[in-house]
Write a structure and sequence with these properties.
Elements (H helix, E strand, L loop, with lengths): L1 E12 L2 E13 L4 E5 L6 H9 L6 E6 L19 H12 L3 H12 L14 H13 L5 E5 L7 H14 L4 E5 L3 H7 L2 E6 L2 E5 L2 H13 L1
Parallel strand pairs: 3-6, 3-7, 5-6
Antiparallel strand pairs: 1-2, 1-4, 7-8
Helix pairs in contact: 2-3, 3-4
Length: about 220
């Protein structure tokens, strides 16, 4: 269960306050993989960081009765001067999981080769995403926050990512951000749409996609 209580977040842009999350009060449905939809700049990444606790709201709070992953795809999850291996060990300690098991899983899954032992700052965006997705999937969370990264890599890697994701969804929930509606239909069972600071919840994924499409058309 993830609940928003009077949740508000804004930023100052060119001297004006821009509200991206506007006094949200709702509980997200459980037992499902949710597609988080919204136009560019709607605040999807901001909402993901608020849920993960990596960003503080202006007002209100988010409560949960389970564990939540860091937002996969968010660059702030890693320290650029540390290697992929060192970042993986550090995250294992933070979440209290077996370091050797997580290291073995990530090294095999991310397919980084010798770059696993190089500083993150030399990684391409795709390499960072593969590492982030591997670390996240290597830890058992009640809710996973996934931002586009299952689209990274070649067809074989994408298929492997989706297979691991589906396996995790047998016992966990997820919130997935993607602009690829085919991927959304493949991996999600319901939808939430963020528009002008408000969040609409749809038990029917197709209804969420249609509502999002109409918003995009203006």
């Amino acid at each position: 269960m993830i609940r928003f209580e009077n949740l508000t977040k804004s930023f100052w842009v060119q001297g004006e306050r821009r509200v991206v999350i506007d006094n949200l009060n709702l509980t997200l449905p459980t037992g499902s993989s949710l597609a988080l939809l919204g136009r560019n700049g709607a605040g999807k990444s901001t909402l993901m960081q608020l849920i993960a606790g990596t960003m503080r709201p202006d007002h209100g709070r988010i409560t949960s009765d389970g564990t939540i992953s860091f937002p996969v795809g968010f660059g702030g999850s890693f320290h650029g001067e540390l290697t992929g291996a060192q970042n993986t060990r550090f995250i294992a300690r933070i979440y209290g999981v077996d370091t050797d098991e997580l290291m073995a899983f990530v090294q095999d899954f991310a397919e980084l080769g010798d770059f696993f032992y190089e500083p993150i700052r030399v990684y391409s965006s795709g390499m960072r995403s593969r590492l982030a997705f591997g670390v996240s999937m290597g830890i058992r969370f009640d809710t996973y926050l996934i931002d586009e990264v299952t689209a990274v890599g070649d067809a074989a890697f994408r298929a492997k990512s989706q297979a691991v994701f589906r396996e995790r969804m047998k016992s966990s929930d997820a919130i997935l951000v993607s602009h690829d509606m085919a991927q959304v239909r493949e991996m999600c069972s319901a939808g939430i749409v963020l528009d002008h600071g408000r969040l609409s919840v749809f038990d029917d994924l197709e209804a969420a996609i249609e509502y999002h499409r109409k918003l995009m058309l203006g």
